[in-house]
Amino acid sequence: MATQHYIVDRSLHWLAACLILFILMKMSAQIHTINYQIKGQVLHRQDAIQTHALMR
């Protein structure tokens, strides 16, 4: 019986982890789109280049 509880626990854990990652990626995409619409194409492109340069 303990193994069945363990399997259910791990399944719920990974389901929740995947759901959280999906939600974060969706939020990031929505924020990116809003940022693009507010700033416009040129300013958004400059910010993206600067941000990616700082990441490296």
UniProtKB/TrEMBL annotation:
Keywords: Membrane, Transmembrane, Transmembrane helix. It comes from the Bacteria. The chain crosses the membrane at residues 12-29. This is Cytochrome b561 bacterial/Ni-hydrogenase domain-containing protein.
